């Protein structure tokens, strides 16, 4: 049986309708309803039509946000392999530019504290991802080469 999870502790079988483990706010509920209305009116957006590509870049975005990487970076190394960031991210963000449900998507995903791409914006927990604020600060930590000691001196 194929399994998926609503939370790490509650696996469910595919096709089952899990009960929500938390209540959505009225604002979130309205935003999601509005998004569904627009999807019904305009049809599936490019991110849904190209779901495999979108899923791959969403995984990359979650890595970028977690590791505080600049989205303009061309490539990053993951397990010794070069993973493209900028080009596929730009491709997906371009889909959003012309999307008729862009604003509804951004509103709904912001209300759900989503991390990923929504409405042409990279979100981290529902807020626009700001690489400048996410960067680790240089200071009195031993993360820089000049401040580390090899134990010889």
From TrEMBL:
Keywords: Plasmid. Residues 144-153 have a biased composition (Acidic residues). It comes from the Bacteria. Residues 133-153 are annotated as: Disordered. This is 4Fe-4S Wbl-type domain-containing protein. The lineage of its organism: Bacteria, Bacillati, Actinomycetota, Actinomycetes, Mycobacteriales.
């Amino acid at each position: 049986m194929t399994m998926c999870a609503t939370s790490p502790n509650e696996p469910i079988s595919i096709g089952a309708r899990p009960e929500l483990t938390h209540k959505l706010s009225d604002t979130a509920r309205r935003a999601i309803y509005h998004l569904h209305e627009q999807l019904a009116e305009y049809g599936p957006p490019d991110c849904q039509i190209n779901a495999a590509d979108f899923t791959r870049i969403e995984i990359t975005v979650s890595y970028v946000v977690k590791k505080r990487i600049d989205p303009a970076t061309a490539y990053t190394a993951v397990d010794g392999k070069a993973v493209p960031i900028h080009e596929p991210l730009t491709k997906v963000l371009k889909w959003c530019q012309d999307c008729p449900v862009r604003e509804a998507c951004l509103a709904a995903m912001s209300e759900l504290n989503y991390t990923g791409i929504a409405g042409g914006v990279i979100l981290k927990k529902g807020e626009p991802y700001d690489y400048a604020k996410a960067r680790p600060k240089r200071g009195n930590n031993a993360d820089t080469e000049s401040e580390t000691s090899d134990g010889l001196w």
